[in-house]
Amino acid sequence: MPPHVDSIGRAAARLGRNRDRSVAWLPSLPEGWCRRGPLPSRPLIVVAVALALGTLLGLTVTLVAPACWSAAVVALVAWGLLARRGHPSAGLVLLAAVALTGAGWATARWRLFPADDLAWMLGDRPQPIVVEGRLLDAARERPRPADPLRGGSLPPTSECLLEVTAVRDGETWRRAGGRAVLVIDGPAPACAVDTRVLVWGRGSCPMAPGNPGEFDKRARARQERTLSIIRVCGAECLEEIARPSRLTIGGFLDALRSRGEGALAAHLSPARAPLASALILGTREGLAGNATEPFMVTGTVHILSISGLHVAFLAGGLFVVARFARIPRGAALVAVALVTGLYMVLVGAQTPVLRATLVVWLACLGGAFGRRSAGINALATAAILVLVWHPPELLRIGSQLSFLSTAVLVAAAGARAAGRRDDDPIARLIDRSRSPLERWLRRRGRDLTDLLLVGAAVWLASSPLVASSFHVVSPVGLVLNPLIAPLVGLAMVGGFVCLLAAPCSSTLAGLGGAVCDGALAILDLAVGLAARIPGAFAWVAGPPLWWTIGWYVGMVGMFLVLAGPRLVRPATWAGAAALWAGVGMLATAIPAPKPASLGMIAAAMGHGCGIVVQGPGGRVLVYDAGRLGAGVAAGRGISAVLWSEGVGRIDTLVISHADTDHFNGVPDLIERFSVGRVVVPGAFLESPSPAVEAIVKAIRSAGIPLTVAHAGDEIPFDPLCRVRVLHPAAAGIGPDARGSQVGADRRGPSDNETSLVMSVESAGRRILLTGDLEGPALDRFVAAGPGACDVLIAPHHGSLASLPAALARATTPRYVIVSGVEGPRWEEVRRGYESAAGADAPAQVVRTDGAVRLRLSASRLDVSQFRGGRWRALAARSAPAPIAEGVSAGGPDDVEADATAPLTSSSGHYRDSSFPPPASGG
Known about the structure:
This protein has 27 helices and 27 strands. With 922 residues, the protein is α+β, with helices and mostly antiparallel strands. The protein starts with a helix and ends in a 10-residue tail after the last strand.
């Protein structure tokens, strides 16, 4: 045995013996509870753990890669000296070298990018750009269903990857690099893979999360090393320069996928063909967004992504075919390895597929040499190879769930096999006395029981991680996943028969398609029915980080300490889960002491509005939840804010008026949270908008009381808080002799003029929520004297129609929150609010390009903003400086950027940063 493997094996065995001695102090436990023998020597597991810890260190702590590698070399030299002397710590020093090497490699892959990467030349805001590049895959159309809450039927978009080779700088071209996501508004262009193209569009970097708990697109871009986004208006913005001269691997694979999709579309029903493409080929572009919701909430969404389950079905099916065809063992092993490898490449080699394929290859290799590979060793080998190939995979929730589920399957299967008593002579004698039918039924019943128990073990192990990341717990998945597994296998068999037979026999392809279509129809029906069962799933805020870490540390500890027969008993795991759940509930029931205060979070919603108010007594009021043209994003953003605060119930939900950018996220809130009441102005219910009709129907279908509020009403909210309605009056606003100012009909007020304006007061503090109030209604509101406030939510997203100077003088706010994106007149609006109260008491204007949180008590007012993944205190601004004569107060949007403007970059080969920052334009 090589000395490095031998030293690691000795270290692992020594750890096992030490662990065996460490449990000797538990004599009070009944006999058979603790593992008495040493742990089996598994050097690969120890190496994988060391590499994973080093990788995690490199991904989470700012390190210098050369320094890590230098330390690893020193550790290797020390290991050589210690191993030569037979020192017992040699193995631990070698593991330290492995961890340091992993830390350096992870740092390099996570933080270092080429200096000519296009992302260094871009910022968060889109800017015109012209680039040359090569298409890495074919653009695929993503249909978007008609939705009145998003403004009607939206045109489809198409996406593909572009390898950038040059960027236009003035009248010349400069060399550039990196990969970019190319988003095309409209149908996909007919460009082959590896085609060189010119692209006219607007480039930007992925946005950092603006709200706590929101999905981090910027981190995902770093993981995939695709740091730029280029959006174009249509296929006409792409110009082909040169097509590939020969068939490339990428082109061949894309053609294969396209033919496969065509075969499935030809032989399956239109309703099931997109689902079959996702299940078999991994192409989910054809699936509508609402089609995946039942799979998500029932814990079966893994079916729609090519995962280890699909590779396992494929490999198992191939072994069965080889056995019936009497193919020689060696040839069968080679065929299985080749086919699974080709399938991995065809579907994109995602981490779950790569992991499963590596395990199949190791099993085939072991079978070729007549040795049975231990499942946990194969999994450790796969983990090492994945971490070496792409260290950031350690942070991806899909990769974490893939390895976790497989580890539990291997451990549960091993423990179950060890716990069986098939070798008991008396049991065998009793079994032989039964009839063949009874024996068969008993064996199948035992197999079904094992399947349910193993599925329960996987569900129990993965639920905390799923709840933390996706905020859903699906008890129905306990039963549903084992039951639909045969349907998934049957659908895959039919789909593969359809794909393989399509070029040769339409009849056989149609038969396979019919089998696949029928299996998917039953599967779709089962998942849909399961999602409608009361209590089948629950949306949750998710457990705290300490609880989740403790859960998995406890699981590992139980596997190390408890004896095998004890591990296979469901009562053991149920008791441990109940005990740790009780700890979590106890910690939740005893909240950390904090001073009573009025809290408010203005979520980052783009052009939209979402305000969360938390009263001193813990009650929650949400004022508006919407975003222009992006209802799904609105619901996702406001839900993330609520979950990050541990909120599970909204006591009062207010919709200010009938513009969709203020309420198209409400359906998600109704589905995910318990809502006490919904408050709207009277004009909202009179609106003819289809979106209003849809949202009112959803509210009433959910059984939520719908209340109409007018000026003078008080909304019961929190015992220590007062909520008053200031506008509109009960009789409406009435026509104005001058007519309305912005978008209103002369026969009556516009939706904006009927906005529900509210005042939230507590401990002498006051927040003014104004919706989109504008026009004559705003003139009258200001003239009536709304009174001073501490925090003002600027009307109409801080536009000039919000009368910044007049409103600021009437309310004298300390902080003005602009819930919207930066517009061309942003500086003028900001200075209008800031200077209205005079230089001695300027209002501080904060824009929600990151969520803004305020804590108001009688003695202090604290303001922070969500930036860079955490809350940062917002420093008070000094009095506004006067605008220099001749200098425009407009923002960057006042001047249209030129696509030929020079772009800056840096010298050197690589740049080191948490993310490529925007460079200044030349």
